[in-house]
Design brief:
With about 325 residues, this protein is an alpha/beta fold. The chain folds into 2 domains: about 120 residues, ATPase, nucleotide binding domain (Nucleotidyltransferase, domain 5), CATH 3.30.420.40; about 170 residues, ATPase, nucleotide binding domain (Nucleotidyltransferase, domain 5), CATH 3.30.420.40. It contains 11 helices and 13 strands. It has a 5-stranded mixed β-sheet. Helix 3 packs across helix 11 and helix 6 packs across helix 7. The longest helix has 25 residues. The two termini are about 15 Å apart. Bound molecules: zinc ion. The site of zinc ion has 6 residues, from loops. The site of zinc ion (ZN) has 6 residues, from loops.
């Protein structure tokens, strides 16, 4: 029987996204299940496989048609073994995710970090447009990174390749989840931008932003972008400084991998050109002119589906 079906799985701390995708890249079905965190997340692989088996049966797709399962998981993944060294938000430590899923399903299973997988997905079916060299950045609660070099995702020697959220951008800066200080994530993530804004408000600055906060009793990056657009000088400076640091970091990565595309996604990217244009301006200032010539900045196109497409593509790439 021809193997014409790919299974993509994207494991998050709240939900697991699953998809059945054809080898041509058509989405046949996608759905989510909750991530059950009790007992240290032990039941997650079984939950995933039960739900996929049920779906395949509903769709009358025989398991024999499945080429394999590609899985994105949070945390550091040991290349080759597919073991999750540590995934704090699920509770896994040295968790043999690949072996467990392979034993449950009888299928070939491939596992990589969720941000790396999302980069593969964006490159296969989204904004990357199948270039050989690409950098994907997700500006969400944290800063996620994925690098495709010569068509391959970079995982590194022990699974910390492309962890661009943890480039040090400020010595003795704000504390990061990784235990160090001044990582890019502490500045350019949604969390980092809001933290900087709260500091301004505590100093009695950013009065337009303060009005917005008083109206809805909280601030997100949306209110900060709005305050800057309304002429709040302090909010403008905050964003200018943040985008300068982000553009500077991307410029330094770009002279190493020479990407044809830098794909920016995540909640902060909803700001569109108000984000892309200043980051690109900073990037141009700090990178080699020839590196800049080759590089196009684009917004991510697949949203939450990037991970499952990337998982499916990982299977395709390995067969
Ligand atoms: Zn860090």
């Amino acid at each position: 029987m021809d193997k014409d079906i790919l299974i993509g799985v994207d494991i998050g701390g709240t939900t697991v996204k699953n998809a059945i995708i054809s080898i041509q890249g058509e989405m046949i079905d996608k759905w989510e299940i909750p991530t059950v965190l009790k007992n240290g997340g032990k039941s997650v692989p079984q939950d995933i496989w039960n739900s996929i088996e049920k779906k395949l049966s509903e769709l009358s797709i025989s398991k024999d048609r499945c080429l394999g399962m590609g899985v994105g998981a949070p945390g550091f993944i040991e290349p080759g073994t597919g073991k999750v060294a540590i995934a704090v938000n699920i509770g896994w430590k040295d968790f043999a995710l690949k072996d467990i899923l392979r034993d449950l399903s009888g299928l070939q299973v491939y596992v990589d970090n969720d941000a790396n997988i999302a980069a593969l997905g964006e490159n296969w079916k989204g904004a990357g447009n199948q270039v050989n060299n690409m950098l994907a950045v997700t500006l969400g609660t944290g800063v996620g990174g994925g690098i495709i070099a010569n068509g391959q995702v970079i995982s590194g020697a022990n699974g910390t390749g492309a962890e661009i959220g943890h480039i040090t951008v400020e010595k003795n800066g704000a504390s990061c989840n990784c235990g160090r200080k001044g990582c890019l994530e502490t500045v350019a993530s949604a969390t980092g931008i809001v933290r900087q804004a709260e500091e301004l408000l505590a100093e009695g600055k950013a009065l337009k932003l303060k009005e917005k906060k008083n109206q809805i009793n909280r601030i997100t990056t949306k209110e900060i972008f709005e305050a800057a657009a309304d002429g709040d000088q302090d909010a403008m400076h905050l964003l200018d400084r943040t985008f300068d640091i982000l553009g500077f970091s991307l410029a330094n990565i770009a002279v190493i991998i020479n990407p044809a595309k830098i794909v920016i996604g995540g909640g902060v990217s909803k700001a569109g050109d108000a984000l892309l244009l200043p980051v690109k301006r900073a990037f141009e200032t700090y990178t080699l002119p020839r590196t800049n010539e080759a590089c196009e900045f684009v917004l991510a196109a697949l949203g939450n589906d990037a991970g499952v497409y990337g998982g499916a593509y990982l299977v395709l790439q390995n067969n």
